Amino acid sequence: MRMPEPDGAVLARRTQIAASLRALVPDVRVIDHPDELRPYECDGLTAYRQPPMLVMLPETTAQVSRILGWCQAEGVKVVPRGAGTSLSGGALPLADCVLLSLARFNRILSVDYDDRLAIVQPGVTNLAVTQAVEDRGFYYAPDPSSQIACSIGGNVAENSGGVHCLKYGLTTNNVLGVELVLMSGEIVRLGGTTLDSPGLDLLGLIVGSEGLLGVVTEVTVRILPKADAARALLIGFAAVEDAGACVAAIISHGIIPAGMEMMDRIAIHAAEAFVHAGYPLDVEALLIVELDGPEAECGFLVGEVERIARANGAVLLRTSGSEAERNLFWAGRKAAFPAVGRVSPDYYCMDGTIPRRRLPEVLSRMAALSEQYGLGVANVFHAGDGNLHPLILYDASRPGELEKAEAFGADILRLCVEVGGVLTGEHGVGVEKRDLMPEMFTALDLDQQQRMKCAFDPGQLLNPGKVFPTLHRCAELGRMHVHRGALPFPELPRF
Ligand SMILES: Cc1cc2nc3c(=O)[nH]c(=O)nc-3n(C[C@H](O)[C@H](O)[C@H](O)COP(=O)(O)OP(=O)(O)OC[C@H]3O[C@@H](n4cnc5c(N)ncnc54)[C@H](O)[C@@H]3O)c2cc1C
What we know:
Pfam families: FAD-oxidase_C (PF02913), FAD_binding_4 (PF01565). This is Glycolate oxidase. One of its GO terms (molecular function) is (S)-2-hydroxy-acid oxidase activity. By secondary structure, this protein is of the alpha+beta class. The chain folds into five domains: about 10-100, 2-Layer Sandwich (Uridine Diphospho-n-acetylenolpyruvylglucosamine Reductase, domain 2); about 110-225, Uridine Diphospho-n-acetylenolpyruvylglucosamine Reductase, domain 3 (2-Layer Sandwich), CATH 3.30.465.10; about 225-340, Alpha-Beta Plaits, CATH 3.30.70.2190; about 345-440, Alpha-Beta Plaits, CATH 3.30.70.2740; about 440-475, no CATH class. It is built from 19 helices and 20 strands. The protein has a seven-stranded antiparallel β-sheet, with helices on both faces. Strands 5-6-10-8-9 form a five-stranded antiparallel β-sheet. Flavin-adenine dinucleotide binds near residues 79, 102, 210 and 337.
């Protein structure tokens, strides 16, 4: 993995930098012993590892502001980190960086049931938000499978999704405001506690910005009342393509399920052996479709989905008869990633999105790629959103297999772009998909995106080496090319 060259002058000052930061924010824990840095050397993309120069664990916005301001003045890189579950290497440290852990920002600050919102610190786990409000019949809708561990700050940075995002939206649709510390140390507030705020929608820019534009120190999230009724269906198919066609048919019928997930044979068997969710073992593909709403609407939609499923070749149909059974149906899906980890020494989780109607074609082309590379692939994914998560099975102890898995993964993502989709659905670009960005964006697109980065972080010190395949200096991007004396856009006033 190609990363920005470590700054030798910074590394030479390592001890002095640690001492200066300790003096700057005496209450903040600074970790610089090599053994204690090890736990921070990677995130969920464990193929890449690099211990940081040092780790800091602030717990107030003022401390974050002082640290960032000092690092900018001293030319020291900073990598923000939530819970470290990113699957795209977003929180991968650099050898010469300060890794800024937000783990101590772990308090729920307030809950307002009348306005249906909660104000939380970024280190609070996704699940803890729901747990804090569920006794009043509320929940936080975006539910990544990692919700027991991942932080809200990380969710904001990655614009994370989950099973229920098909109907209730991704993180970006459920965040009302953030407090953000810029690399300069300046503290800004974007959005607020109402549905819209005056000015440019900079909140929309921050959600999904992968820790490149600022450090989120407070998040205002929407909370929703739980639906009156929810029922889940298990729908089995003899062919993966039939399941893909059923997904497209349900949506084109005008039904938006609360969740619609697909698992293929390998994933079904792995999840069943792990969780005993009662999944059928004689089908090639399984859909879990959840319908929710008022009791009458829910019952009607269950009937409609059953009818559509039969018309698309379903060979098994089961509807949850109780809340316990519905949770059991989901338990297998939510544990599918670790379950696949039991059937293969290693797996590489990809994340790309395609138009739903191309699902059957993409699934069969992925099967052909699997043959070509000689590596198995398990599919567990958010079918309703067209968000694929192929898990490429490999053995890292066999020389060359990681590289083969990476090449296979890159081909899958190219396929996603070819059929009109995108490089990522919810895991972000990070370092994993960074070098594939030109598959989707032109050089001009990428320059424009980097100009945005320059507006927030002109020194390119915040999480460098992520998202952009080539780092331009901000001054370079500002340069204007004058060809044979002809100014581009001569009608524009010059300053
Ligand atoms: C088993 C498993 C299942 C998963 N399932 C899903 C899923 O269903 N859906 C999904 O979307 N993702 C999923 N993920 C990926 C991951 O959990 C999400 O991307 C999550 O949002 C990362 O949160 P985190 O707190 O771990 O962030 P980290 O991994 O620590 O960081 C992720 C990125 O956010 C930045 N960042 C973190 N905190 C802040 C902050 N306060 N301010 C600014 N930048 C910050 C980091 O710099 C980095 O770029 C899964 C991961 C695993 C391991």
